[in-house]
């Protein structure tokens, strides 16, 4: 069963070391998202409408809010993946226009050939997370080196002023903006999309078309993104029972929440909380 081996969180966002042997449902993240292979079999992801490979020499590059899925096939061996979920403000501290990592076209391609430096930094960060799980400063230093190499390799960050890119990406119809605010305010209460469409003054069909045109994801995917980000925070940082977290996010039973979490994060909530709580001195080796 797929599970998290390690998790690092901070102002940079989060980094998960995942042992993957089952598919993930189509989902999205509010961060730029980089997937790097550490060990195991080559793998593949569906990004947008493309199937792209994750190998020793290729990275999968996913823009903020871009729908994607892990396409694991029956009988395929497991893969250890370093998954980066990076906050734009943190990247913007390196160069102001790197804050454009929150824009929908930061990565121009969904897959790119890695360099020896990227492969070395990927392995170094994965090993540091396993062998020294409590050394947060070292993790962030390695992540910074890795993301600088990734951005310089895979983006046209010199091409357009970040202010124009973000401005172009930020226009959202006021009715879609209202619906998004309602979802963010209380995802537990937003389950009926027909009602949500009516609440913002649109027919269901028009609402879905306008929402996806504005935010690049469907209302249901947006709701799931909000639920998942709340779930990650509650599981990783909190002490509430999973039953309480499940109820707060609108799931009818804890088992439904656990399946949702595993299908989106590649890990059970139990394993995710465990690796979030690890401190230095708890060692194991990459298999």
TrEMBL record:
The keyword Chaperone is annotated on this UniProt entry: no
Gene3D superfamilies per UniProt: Homeodomain-like
Coiled-coil region list: none
Swiss-Prot/TrEMBL keywords: DNA-binding, Transcription, Transcription regulation
InterPro entries linked: AraC-bd, AraC_XylS_family_regulators, Homeodomain-like_sf, HTH-like, HTH_AraC
One matching Pfam family: AraC_binding
Positions of the HTH araC/xylS-type domain: 177-275
Protein name as annotated: Helix-turn-helix transcriptional regulator
């Amino acid at each position: 069963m797929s599970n998290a081996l390690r998790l690092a969180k901070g102002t940079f966002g989060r980094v998960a070391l995942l042992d993957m042997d089952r598919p993930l449902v189509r989902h999205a993240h509010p961060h730029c998202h980089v997937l790097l292979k550490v060990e195991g079999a080559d793998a593949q992801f569906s990004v947008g409408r493309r199937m792209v490979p994750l190998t020793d020499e290729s990275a999968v590059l996913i823009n903020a809010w871009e729908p994607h899925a892990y396409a694991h096939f029956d009988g395929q061996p497991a893969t250890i993946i370093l998954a980066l979920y990076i906050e734009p403000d943190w990247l913007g501290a390196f160069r102001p226009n790197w804050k454009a990592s929150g824009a929908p076209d930061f990565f121009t391609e969904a897959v790119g050939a890695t360099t020896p430096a990227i492969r070395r930094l990927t392995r170094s960060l994965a090993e540091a997370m396993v062998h020294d799980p409590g050394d947060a400063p070292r993790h962030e230093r390695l992540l910074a080196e890795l993301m600088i190499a990734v951005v310089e390799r895979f983006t046209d960050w010199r091409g357009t002023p970040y202010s124009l890119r973000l401005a172009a990406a930020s226009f959202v119809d006021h009715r879609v903006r209202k619906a998004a605010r309602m979802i963010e305010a209380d995802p537990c209460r937003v389950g009926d999309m027909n009602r949500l469409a009516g609440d913002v003054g649109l027919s269901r069909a028009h609402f879905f078309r306008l929402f996806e045109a504005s935010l690049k994801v469907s209302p249901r995917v947006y709701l799931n993104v909000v639920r998942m980000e709340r779930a990650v925070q509650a599981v990783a940082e909190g002490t509430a029972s999973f039953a309480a977290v499940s109820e707060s996010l609108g799931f009818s039973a804890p088992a439904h929440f656990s399946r949702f979490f595993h299908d989106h994060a590649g890990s059970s909530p139990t394993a995710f909380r465990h690796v979030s709580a690890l401190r230095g001195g708890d060692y194991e080796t990459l298999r």
